[in-house]
Amino acid sequence: MINSKLIQYILLLVLIGAGVYTLVKGEVPRDKAVLGQAAPLFTLADLQGDTVPLSRYEGKGVLLNFWASWCNPCVNELPLLNEAYKLTGVDVLAINVGEKAETVQQFVDRYELAFPVVLDADKKIKKQYLAVGLPLTIVINAKGEIIERHEGELTEMADILNLMRKISHD
Fold it and tell me: Of 68, 76, 106, 162, which alpha carbon lies 20 to 30 A from 153's?
């Protein structure tokens, strides 16, 4: 009876140990966005059809914002991001997820967005950055590392400015 309980206890410890090892070892592929690690590089087209590589922001940092025009929190957040961008000059790259260029251009014109907007039509970059919902804001420092990840709407200008400060004071 004691041997049976002891064997069960040892098996449980082995299973727990294997689970902890897997978590610590990190099973997230290197091409995925992980907090504290280098941001996966990508190149996307902007609304004029020009390519915009993430590497353009090396040495200065950038705030990535994943969004869509059908997403109400995104619609609320983007004008605030636009104002913060104009105030601070910190680079923002807005990544539209899955929409046609015409739809995105209408949105950009309507809200007079001043920062670059690129198209992730096939949602490949959204998946690479492990974006489940929208909006998603990723802060990348001058070294190209992901230093902050905010899922959901940023509703306060102070919160946006604090994220931007993390880039400019890095």
Answer: 106
End-to-end CA distance of the chain: 61
pLDDT in tens, 36-62: 999 999 999 999 999 999 999 999 999
The yes-or-no verdict on residue 135 having pLDDT over 70 is: yes
Question: 């353009």: which residue's tokens?
Answer: 56
Burial 10-32 (b: 16+ CB within 10 A, else e): eeeeeeeeeeeeeeeeeeeeeee
The pTM for the full model equals 0.81
Q: Give the integer Cα–Cα distance in Å for 106 and 16.
A: 53
Q: Yes or no: say if 84 and 61 are a contact pair by the CB < 8 Å rule.
A: no
With H, G, I as helix, E, B as strand and everything else as coil, classify residue 86: helix
